[in-house]
Specification:
disordered N terminus; ABC transporter substrate-binding protein; about 20% strand; alpha+beta; about 525 residues; SBP_5; 4-stranded mixed sheet
């Protein structure tokens, strides 16, 4: 098998060499970047998706109004730069955000990009247009936007109900591309049209996704690559073996586990690998509107049963972080201090004492050594979900809960949990930006499509609004910590751990940056090139 891959790599090398041109004093232009993909996305429409599996292959097709600098690892408010916008300004007592747009930009089908496209995109996201998204997981991001107005073809304004400084951060996320007004939401699921550095070629479900260079890209000289090809390989070990054998130029970002990283470094010592937090929280979701998890005692018992350090030790050889909703510091900008975190029930270091308390709560609810609670533990059918789900099932046995693993394919997973068609689930919540507004409103507000647990606390929701308007960062941090602590005490969505994962690429791949506090920043590969 290795010989076949090696031959494929040699063949690929000859093609790359033939089509690569050195730019004077700089990177080389040409070549197809070959990556494996961890699974098959349900469709190609980023605005209708809730998974990194969709962002990675399709963000290169698009642009945002603004984006985080792609050569800096940490996403912060001060490293947001223009993209389809040339500039922006807050006016009207910080209740209007106005963008001057870049002239001369064209969609991949040749039609001009204008302010109307921006308005159409956000009208759909806010549910204000005749055309509708089939799924709209981030509608809550724009609750404070009254309307989007245009002033000619090259100016657009977001008019807010009240100040929301984080709106700019939300617009810089990899989940916020601008869509064309003239293409239907249905067509965007199967043949996306963008303004980005790469054009969509084809998507064969469970096989491959192919993109090609946009020769008319507005950013002169970019992209360097001729294209990107993703081969869908759900088995992580098989995919890594193919990477080691030279079939792929790059692994799927942040998908190389710590144990597999050792295999890569031993078998391909020249490979470049980095390990970073990816702002993805592994957590438990419960259908709190239906028995038995409508009982707060059972939910609290489950949270108390967790041995978080055991998860991190088994899965990441100790390279992970315990935290609340927000990514822990120093990589995270908003996470609670350690001493505050450990004051929350279940986060203290004495696991045995926590579980003893959990068993008492289970007995209060009518369960015990002679009467166990049988549940199905649903999770997505990829390793980063399945592996912790197995550990969770094992840990729940200590408090009289017998779990049965129920695996669900990616295309069905998010629709299933959005309609609350589950009892108990092991979920990964990827935060699109490291900002409390994104996390709180999207995952915990009462009406959000991504509030998979039906958690609803109107008093806490009022605090979401208070912190959202605060311009003093230190004051806002303390508000965020208090909210996060309350969410954990309410067992809204028990956070097990924040992962650290690896990304690897061959030594000839240049210009790659791996984000340290958000995998979803919208990486477009337009600055990536290959020196071979």
């Amino acid at each position: 098998m290795r010989s076949v891959w090696a031959l494929a790599a040699v063949a690929a090398l000859s093609v790359l060499t033939a089509s690569t041109t050195t730019l004077a004093g700089g990177p080389k232009q040409g070549g197809i970047l070959r990556m494996y993909h961890r699974d098959s996305p349900g469709n190609a429409s980023i605005h209708e998706g809730a998974t990194y599996s969709l962002n990675v292959p399709f963000m290169p097709v698009f642009n945002n109004l603004v984006i985080y600098k792609q050569d800096e690892a940490q996403n912060r408010m001060d490293n947001i730069i223009p993209e389809l916008a040339e500039s922006w300004a807050w006016v009207n007592d910080n209740k209007t955000l106005t963008f001057k747009l870049r002239p001369g930009v064209k969609w991949h089908d040749g039609k001009p990009f204008t302010s109307a496209d921006v308005k159409c995109t956000f009208d759909m996201l806010m549910g204000k247009s005749q055309q509708k998204f089939r799924q709209n997981p981030r509608k809550t991001w724009y609750e404070q936007v009254n309307d989007v107005s245009t002033n000619g073809d090259l100016e657009v304004s977001f008019n807010l109900k009240r100040p929301q400084p984080s709106l700019l951060a939300l617009l810089a996320s990899g989940y916020t591309p601008v869509y064309p007004c003239h293409v239907s939401p249905g067509d965007m699921r199967t043949h996306p049209i963008g303004t980005g550095p790469f054009k969509f070629v084809e998507f064969k479900a469970n096989e491959s996704i192919k993109l090609t260079r946009n020769p008319d890209y507005w950013r002169e000289g970019r992209p360097y690559l001729d294209g990107i090809e993703f081969t869908i390989i759900p088995n992580r070990s098989t995919a890594i073996l193919a990477f080691v054998a030279g079939k792929f130029d790059m692994a799927f970002p942040t998908e190389v586990s710590i144990p597999l990283l050792k295999d890569v470094k031993s078998q391909a010592p020249k490979a470049v690998c980095v390990v970073e937090p990816n702002n993805v929280a592994t957590n438990i979701i419960v259908n709190s509107s239906a028995p038995p998890f409508d009982n707060i005692d059972i939910r609290r018992a489950m949270a108390l049963s967790l041995d978080r350090k055991a998860f991190i030790s088994i899965m990441f050889e100790g390279q992970g972080d315990v935290g609340g909703t927000m990514l822990p510091p120093p990589n995270g900008l908003w996470g609670m201090p350690k001493e505050m975190l450990e004051s929350i029930p279940g986060y203290g270091p004495d696991v045995n004492a926590n579980r003893e308390e959990a068993r008492k709560l289970m007995q209060k609810a009518g369960y015990g050594p002679d009467k166990h609670l049988a549940v199905k533990v649903s999770t997505r059918n990829i390793p980063v979900y399945r592996d912790p789900a197995v550990i969770l099932i094992d840990q729940l046995k200590s408090i009289y809960i017998d779990g049965e693993l129920d695996v669900v394919e990616t295309a069905n997973w998010f629709p299933k949990i959005a309609r609350k068609d589950y009892m108990l689930g092991l979920n990964l919540t990827g935060n699109a930006v490291d900002d409390p507004d994104q996390s709180f409103y999207e995952n915990y507000s009462c009406g959000s499509e991504r509030n998979y647990t039906n958690y609803c606390n109107k008093e806490i929701e009022k605090l979401f609004d208070v912190q959202s308007q605060e311009t003093d960062v230190n004051k806002r941090k303390k508000m965020v910590w208090d909210i996060d602590k309350k969410l954990q005490e309410d067992v809204a969505r028990p956070i097990i751990f924040h992962a650290r994962t690896g990304s690897c690429w061959q030594p000839y791949v240049k210009g790659v940056t791996v984000m340290s506090n958000s995998s979803y920043n919208g990486y477009r590969y337009e600055d990536v090139w290959m020196d071979k």
